[in-house]
Amino acid sequence: MKDHILIQAGYFDPAACDIDAFIALIEQQTSQGDVPMAADIQANIPIYDIPSLAGSLGDAHSRRLLMTEWASVLMSGAGVLVLRNAYSDTTAIDTASDVFTRIIADEKAGSSGGGDHFAAAGANDRIWNSLQKLCRAAPDVHLAYFANPAIAAICEAWLGPNYQMSAQVNLVHPGGPAQQAHRDYHLGFQTAEISASYPAQVHLLSPALTLQGAIAHCDMPVQSGPTKLLPFSQAFTSGYAGWRREDFRAVFEDRHVQLPLRKGDAVFFNPALFHAAGANTTSDIHRMANLLQVSSAFGRAMETIDRNAMCKWVYPHAQTAVAERSLSKAELHAAIAATAEGYSFPTNLDRDPPKGGLAPETQQAFLLRALSEDMGADTFEARLDEMAARQTA
Q: How far, in Å, CA of 60 to CA of 139, rounded?
């Protein structure tokens, strides 16, 4: 009922999130009748044995039935599923791991490696844009690695065709601590204040724009810290408002589940699922996963626009408007919203890491800051070009 009231009001208020309703939601159970094509159910999470589903994946009608079941799990079921033996032959995994290990060493030597959004510094090694870096370093390995019909099917099941793949390697060393519970991209990467500024329908639609996945590059017993998951939590409509609250995080820590994974397994989940990487309490397992962050083809504007040039053209006129007070604050903000890029992504996270949060400064925020500081036009244009260079792959 409270969620209904919040939606009617148009926005989600963290203080109004109903913890009792959340607990009732996550107490649901997954039955075999819900997931008839699953080989097993563990801790409410359906497990799909990919080698045994090869025939289904190769037949158009059966593939669509399987994808329909997967979409149902992600939307209204557990919110998470495991593709057991997604790589029955792990040769591509091993060769990719070798390439990733070299990339990590090279980036450390050059001090170009990026930090993690949710992990403490030094707890892990991260390769941003492992998709492109693998393709550049070993295009033959990249080709073999992503020649995986099961992964293509789960991406299409949630996002439809023409999805956009991206990936980041996370290598968590022995002793690496657990993450805090969170939801994921898009709204999960915003500050609480920015997230709250988006209306309720955006909170409800945002999870349909992305799919989260992880490919296990080594065996991951629970002690090594595979992802902590809270089945059914993705269905809590105001969860992007509530996940930072300590009572919600306490419920997560009390109720979460972890599944051991084997090398070549893959786990996929709705980005709204409450989750967190676990602690690596082993002394000898360096837990490597390639994290897939897959986006809908529809997350794009209709036209190609050079907003960098637009900002340069408009800036001196905006300075004059500020000096002469010919535009109100609301009018100025409206004009800038139509001119400058208001979102931090996509970007190159090696060169453009988050500052003071989960997302880098946006072009809009920089333009407004430059106006408030009365930055000279030449300096503004130079720094704008530097920003654009940092964002380029």
A: 29
